[in-house]
Amino acid sequence: MEEFPNQHQANEENLVDIGLVESKKDEIPILHNEQDAISKVENLEQPNTGNQILAWNCQGCGSKNTRNYLRNLIRSNDPDIIFLLETKMSEQKGSSFFRTLSLPKIWSFPSSGLAGGIALLWKEDNCGLFYIGYVGNPYTWCNNRKGLARTKVRLDRVLANSYWLLQNPDAKLKHLTHLGSDHLPILLSLEDFSGKKKRPFKFFRCWLKEDSCKDIISQSWSTNDTGSPAFLLNRKLQNVRS
């Protein structure tokens, strides 16, 4: 079970993460013509994500029948990810029970009295997911208490794989202003928040006839930047355009 930081501890280093998964930095070869580029983008390997996801509003995991039924579901379906709602379990009981479900990665939040409680369990497989950058308030959840009992964390996030990021290079997450709820609403936009319209880049076949074309593209793709495969490919394409 994760402990939320108090008001004086909440910072980007100790925020609660519910999906810390990253893929390895794949090498992206230099592309020497537009047909090669199209082929590489279309055949960009997608990560091997889990094929089985089990979600259940179980209305309490306290009874023996519910726990046994859940174990049977796991044995018969072998899910890669399990999401449970309304577990109605305290931190101590939930932590003890979830460890018996044979999935090594566990994130859970205890119930409040006789209501609530959620749990997310998953296998250690690398899903190749990355957090999408955000703008706005660095925290998306607050317990609405006063003084030293006040807790703020960045709990609500959006993740995407490298293939999706390549298709949506300007995607941004915006943390909006909240009212009443302890969670901020979040807005995922696939366009640049600046509102500037980008002129589409066009590659003319006649450029391939120029002797210097290959050298220009090779030089543009020689970069020491680091990041996800989608980020690196987008950065190299930007270098070619400039």
Automatic annotation (TrEMBL):
Residues of the Endonuclease/exonuclease/phosphatase domain: 55-126
Keyword Nucleotide-binding: no
Molecular-function GO terms, alphabetical: endonuclease activity; exonuclease activity
InterPro entries found in the cross-reference section: Endo/exonu/phosph_ase_sf (IPR036691), Endo/exonuclease/phosphatase (IPR005135)
Signal peptide: none
Keyword line: Endonuclease, Exonuclease, Hydrolase, Nuclease
This protein's record includes keyword Cell membrane: no
Name by which UniProt lists this protein: Endonuclease/exonuclease/phosphatase
Gene source species: Macleaya cordata
